[in-house]
Design brief:
Helices cover 68% and strands 3% of the residues. It is mostly helical and 442 residues long. A hairpin with a 2-residue loop joins strand 1 and strand 2.
């Protein structure tokens, strides 16, 4: 294996771990305006150029659509650089990080052993995340480490949103449920423990977790022991009802069954919580405004472009420093900035990729290939969690969610290629739970 591929893959695993556990604090590792995500992206371009597999990766229909989307989005960004400068490039991260999909897919296709290596690395991420996520979120919420940051950064070192954590918890739950780890009972206990902490933080994250796991149940991987999961969930809910814990974290955050119940109810109906209802109304009003002007003759083709502060221009700014730029919905953000053409391309990329993964998952199940079925079910559940969270928060506009999403999509394209051309790579049902294999040994 080439050195550039090994260095890139280790760098990718490193930043995904950092984004997943530390959030925005880790994202500022580096020197403005080039941070760790951009550094690894540069390594990725070198690794991709040396892979010789770019043409193979581009043959996947979703990748072709993605390249068209990137081209259109670039046309919606570069003309605004003279007027808005770095702000245009900053907003363009929404589509710019999609380059990770092309890089990851090409590098993995050129080095098949990397698929297993990344899955094993994700298993390590599972252990680290379950052991630390709840504690880091609670400590950050209470402000115990406020002011601790990387040199030159104004963001706290541990600055993670509960909704983002719930996205990864959904992916972890899927990974464990499809049989990619040992000690599943212990890990499910860790998942439920973290969920009890994090579910009170964000409605979007809770919905992302529930819908992702709901999809997993519909796909019904052979390794999914639904009865045990149901028993564990019922037992945990019973304990919560009996104990009814309430932990005040300060700053208006509280871990309680009442808060969790309010979050669930607010997704579908009105609640007595003024904050929850105000947040919902603000989003709906802004999204309605964007849809209205995006379908008008002036903006239907090209949108407002990347660089303009949408919150200021649309009259929905709520922060004194005017740092809010996006409408808490990545899909609506694409529509506002890239017009209807860009939105349809965005939708096409995800629809084609999702259909490809779903078709492979169902085909693998029909052919009694449990590992392949589990891999595709895991990818689909993770993708659903990311997309749902991105529908209610600023998530894909930065590296914390953007690099995770596009790396996942790139991995899926490579996995689909191997499923079609080298299915023996996934024939071993213990592909991930067996002995650790390093890139140097592969």
């Amino acid at each position: 294996m080439k050195l550039t591929a090994r260095v890139f893959m280790r760098g990718l695993a490193f930043i995904l771990l950092g984004y997943g556990v530390m959030g925005r604090g880790f994202a500022y590792l580096g020197f403005e305006p080039v941070y760790v995500g951009e550094m690894v992206l540069a390594l990725g371009f070198v690794a991709m150029a040396n892979s010789g597999a770019v043409k193979t990766a581009v043959r996947h229909p979703s990748m072709r659509m993605l390249l068209v989307f990137i081209g259109w989005s670039a046309l919606m960004t570069f003309p605004y650089i003279p007027e808005y400068g770095m702000m245009a490039l900053r907003d363009g991260a929404l589509w710019g990080y999609s380059l990770y999909a092309l890089i990851v897919s090409a590098v993995i296709i050129a080095n098949p052993q990397m698929m297993r290596w990344l899955l094993i690395r994700y298993r390590t991420f599972v252990y680290v995340f379950l052991a630390s996520a709840w504690a880091i979120w609670a400590i950050a919420s209470m402000g115990l480490l406020q002011g601790l940051s990387l040199p030159g950064s104004q963001v706290d070192l541990f600055d993670i949103k509960g909704g983002d954590n719930l996205v990864h918890l959904a992916g972890i739950a899927a990974f464990v449920a499809v049989g990619m780890t040992r000690k599943r009972t212990l890990l499910f206990c860790g998942i439920l423990f973290n969920f009890a902490f994090l579910a009170t933080s964000k409605r979007a994250g809770m919905l992302a977790f529930l819908l992702a796991f709901g999809l997993l149940i519909l796909l019904n991987p052979p390794q999914l022991k639904l009865a045990k999961i149901a028993y564990a969930a019922i037992l945990s809910l019973t304990i919560l009802l009996l104990v009814n814990p309430s932990v005040d974290l300060g700053k208006g955050r509280k871990i309680s069954l009442d808060q969790m119940t309010s979050n669930v109810i607010s997704m579908f109906d009105k609640t007595n919580s003024t904050n929850l209802e105000a947040s919902k109304s603000w989003r709906i009003d802004w999204w309605t405004e964007i849809i209205a002007y995006s379908l008008s003759p002036r903006y239907i083709a090209a949108g407002k472009g990347y660089g303009v502060n949408l919150a200021d221009m649309d009259g929905f700014q709520v922060l004194e420093d005017k740092s809010l730029r996006s409408p808490h919905n990545a899909h609506i953000n694409v529509l506002a900035r890239s017009g209807l053409i860009g939105f349809l391309l965005w939708f096409g990329v995800h629809a084609i990729w999702c259909f490809s993964m779903l078709r492979a998952s169902l085909d693998a199940k029909r052919r009694s290939m449990p590992t392949w079925h589990g891999i595709f079910a895991f990818l689909l559940a993770y993708w659903v969690a990311i997309m749902v969270n991105a529908s209610f928060d600023v998530y894909l506009e930065g590296p914390i969610g953007g690099i995770w999403l596009w790396s996942l999509i790139g991995f899926g394209i490579a996995a689909r290629y191997f499923y079609d051309h080298q299915p023996e790579l996934g024939m071993d049902s213990t592909m991930v739970v067996t002995r650790y294999t390093d890139l140097d040994d592969a």
